[in-house]
Structure formats: structure tokens, C-alpha cells
Amino acid sequence: MSAIGLIESEYDINDAGIVSAIDDVPLWSAPFGMKLLESARMMKNIRALDIGCGLGFPVVELAGRLGTSCQVFGIDPWTEAVERARDKIRAWGLTNIEIVEGKAEDLPFPDAHFDLVVSNNGTNNVDDEAQVMREIARVAKPGAQILLTMNLPDTMIEFYNVYRDVLRRLNRTAEIDKLEAHIHAKRKPLDETRQLIEGAGLELTGVHEDTFTMKYADGSSLLNNFTIKLAFLGSWTGILDTGDVAPVFDIIEHELNDIAEKSGELKLTIPWVCIECRSPAGRSPEQ
Asked: Terminus of the chain with fewer CB atoms < 10 Å: N or C?
């Protein structure tokens, strides 16, 4: 399929039918979430919160693992995904979990309320990360465990290098700046995230960095992939004027296909991090 064809068939994330077709555990979320679940302390009689719980992973799994002595909450602003998560909860027969529709910048919970706060690739998709970190610090009990996963700036660098090169050859300086701004907005360098965490008064206690690979037969397969079209393509094309999308992405698709032909496949690397921090034991909710 040509680039113009795939743009015309863009998915609507607010279509309930599309939402229902997303994998129960999205492959994109799984590598981050598995490390998060491995790192979380599974204790009885605690309250836990998943920020940006989306379709229900890992919050539904977390509730199942923690058991009925615990109260588990998830929050997300995506209406259709919240409903899907609630459907899973009903299907699983879980009674210790509640999903709330809302924004992470304004958590509807009391101060010092949670023993465990997690976010699986969620805090880097909010409007105001600094405010979210302050809200996490507010709702976390003194000594609470906080686990945050996120992908890092070099995510899919193989694709972005091609995109940048095409824009340079076309003398699209403004669009290159927009592309860099998009990357920074969604995937801040680890040092900046560290500053946001510490600026909110949280103590960073551990950092685990890792990488996984997403492979495709060629560029056409990449650009027509469900997850790419659902979650990434709109941002990639959004930096261009409408009339430029098809011709620019035709070039990108062609160059990605050439890379795949020479190497036998197209590989995209996804560097990511699991950050563990805690709310200082001596902190009061007002601080």
C-alpha cells in the first residue's frame, strides 16, 4: 500500500470497535510492564494506583496478583479504554479494583493515600509531567514505592534518522524542529526525568535500562502496522502540511524498503527505562 493509502485509512482511537480490537496485553506495553510487575513489592493490605492505565495493563494484572486484601485503582482520561478495562475487570471477576476516568495532573485521591504507585509508559504521555510528579508525591504515603517505565529519546531511531534525512534533503528546517520537539515532548532524556522526580520531592532509588527490538519485513509493513497507525503515525504526519504528507511519506516508505531489502528486514530499537523511587519516610503531605 502506498503512503497516501495508509494515511486515508487512519484509525480513530475513539471508535469502540477499534479499541476492542487492541490486544489484551499490547505488545508495545508488555516489555515495560513485565519489568514493572517484577519490580513491584507484592504485599497484602495495601492501596495501589496505576497512572495512565489505558486498556487495563498492568493494573488488572496487578489487582489479580495483589489479591483481595488490597485496594487497586487505575486512572486514565481515555473514555473508551477505561470502559474496556472495566469490561476486563467484570470478566475476571475482580472485586478489589476500580478504574477512574481522569487526568494524572489532578488525581482525585487524598494526600498520603497509596503504598504503591505505578505508571507503565504513562507519565511521558501527559500534558504536564512536572505536575504529575507533584501529584504522585502528594498521593503517595511516606515510604511508598513508586515505579515508572518509559521509552527513551532514541526510540525507533532508525525510522527517525530516515525521516530527518528526507526533511533535510527537502530543506524543511521548520519541520525538523517540529520533529525534534515531538520527540522531546514524548520521550525526555533520563536526566530530565530524574530532575522532575527529584523536583517533586521524591527519592530516586533505582534505574533499570534495557532495549527491545521491533522487526518488520519492510517499511510498507511498518507504516501499515496497526499499533503504528493507531499510536504513532498521526504524530509523525502531524508535523507536515496536509499536502506534503503523501509525497514525503512516499519517499520515507521507499527508503525504509531499500534498507529492509539490503539487510533482509527492518529493525527498530526501543530503549526504555524502569525507574524506582519512593516518597521520603519523613515527608508530611503538606511538604
From this structure: C
Would you say residue 287 lies in a domain?
no
Which tens digits make up the pLDDT trace of 121-164? Answer: 999 999 999 999 999 999 999 999 999 999 999 999 999 999 99
Range of the domain at 143: 3-278
Give the tens place of pLDDT for each residue, 81-101. 999 999 999 988 899 999 999
Where residue 106 sits, what CATH number does that domain have? 3.40.50.150
- Helix, strand and coil percent figures for the chain, each rounded to 5: 50, 20, 30
Enumerate the H helices of the chain as residue ranges.
3-8, 16-21, 30-39, 59-66, 79-92, 129-139, 157-169, 173-186, 190-199, 219-223, 226-231, 233-238, 242-263
- Whether residue 284 lies inside any domain: the answer is no
Residue 118 within a domain: yes
The amino acid at residue 121 is N
Q: Domains in the chain: how many in total?
A: 1
Quote the cell numbers at residue 261.
Answer: 531489502
- B/e letters for 238-247, b = 16+ CB within 10 Å, e = fewer, are ebbeeeebbe
Peptide linkage before 58 cis (omega within 30 of 0):
yes
Residue 239 domain-assigned? Answer: yes
